[in-house]
Design a protein that fits this description.
Layout: H1 2-45, H2 50-56, H3 61-69, H4 76-80, H5 88-97, H6 103-115, H7 117-122, H8 127-132, H9 139-147, H10 152-159, H11 169-175, H12 179-188, E1 201-204, E2 217-219, E3 228-230, E4 243-245, H13 246-260, E5 266-270, H14 275-289, H15 291-297, E6 311-316, H16 317-320, H17 331-339, E7 345-347, H18 354-357, E8 365-368, H19 371-380, H20 384-391, E9 396-399
Parallel strand pairs: 1-2
Antiparallel strand pairs: 1-9, 3-4, 5-6, 6-8, 7-8
Amino acid sequence: MAKKRKKKKVKRNYTRLKRMLFGLIVIAVFINIFIFKKTSIDLYRKGYSSEERKILLDCTEEEISEYLSLDEKIDLEKWNEYSNSHHYYDYELYQRANTELTEMTVIKNVDRLYEIYEELVNLGYSRDYCRKHYSDYRIEDFEVFAKNQIDYDTAKQYLKVNGAVIDDLPQYVNSGSSAIKAVMKYSYGFIDSSVDCSDIYQIDPEDSLTAIVKDRFVLSKNYKPENLVKVDVSRTEDCTNYKLVEEAAIALEDMVSDAKEKDLEIVLTSGYESYSYQKKQYDEYANIYGTWAASVYLIEPGINEHQLATCVDLESQEVLDGEELVFEDTNEYAWLVKHAYEYGFILRYPENQEDVTGTAYKPCHFRYVGKEAAKEIKENGWTLEEYVLAHGLDYSMKKLEDAG
C-alpha cells in the first residue's frame, strides 16, 4: 500500500510539474507576442508602414532598438530599390561618411562588412569602432583584420603610428619589430632613395621640421609656409630669396653671428623659394639649355625643399672675394660641418650619401630641423632620411593615385 501511495504521489507531482511548465510556456508565448506587438506598434508610431515593419521585425533586437531610438524614420524605400540585407541604419551612416558613393555601392560595401561582422566582434572590433571608421577605412581594410585574424589589441599598436597602412598590417605583425620601425620599414622604406618605388606622394608638412621633400615626395604648388620673416644676415647681391620661417630665421642669425665672432663670414645666397619662382627659373633654364640639362642641374618645382622655408644655400666671403675657389675648402664650411647642429641645422646632402638622399653632395645646402633632431643626426652620422625612418612621420601625406 505504501508503495502504491508513493507512486501516485510521484505521478501527481509529475503531472503538476508538466502543467506548470506548460503554463510557463504559455506565459512566455504571450509575453513574446506582447513584446512583438508592442515593438510593431512602436515602429508604427515611428512612421513605418506595415511592409516596412515586417522587414524590421526580422532584424536583430539590437538593430530594432536603434531604429526606435532614432529621432527620425529611415527612408527604407530609397534602399529597397536595390537588393539588400536590411542593414538600413548602417547604409545611412556609411553614405553620410562617403557622400560620393551611390546607394548601390553603399549597400554592397555594408553587406560585405556584415558578412565578417561577427568575426570582427570576436577579434575585438566593436560595432561602434567599425562605424567610427566608415570614412577612413575601406571594406578591404576590415577584411584584412578578419582574413589575417589580427585582433584589435594587436592592430591598435601599429595603427596609432602616423601613416600606418592597413594592407601592410600582416607584415608589421610578423616582423617582430617595434611599431614605428615596422611601419616605416614596410610602408615607407622607399624614403631611402635606394629603395625602388613607383608611387608618388603629396606631402603636407604642417608644422613638421623633418618633412621629406624630393623625388616621389612632392609639395603642392599652392603650399606656402606661415610666419615667413626676412633674415638679417649678409647675403649676395643677387639674393632675392632671403625669407625663412621665423624659427629657422632666428637660428640662422644666431649661427652667422657666432661664426662672425670667430672671423668667419657666412653669406646667404638663397632661402625660401616659392613654387612659382622655382618654375620660372626651371623653365628659363630649360629654354636656354634644354629640358635634359634642366632635369640634371636643377631640381624640379614641387620637389625642391627650398619651398619649405627651412633651407638655406650658404657661401663664404672668401669665395666671393676670390680667396678660395669652392665653399667646401673654406674655414666657414669646416666650422659649419662641426657646429651647425648646435643651432638646429644639418648638412642636408652629405658626401657619399646620394643613394639615400637621392641628391648629389651639396656642401652649400643646410636644412633647419631643430636642435634635438640635428643633434641626433650628427651623433649617429645619419641623413634626414635615416632619422625619419627611425622616428616615423610627424606630418601627413597622401598617395597620388593618378601619378604615373
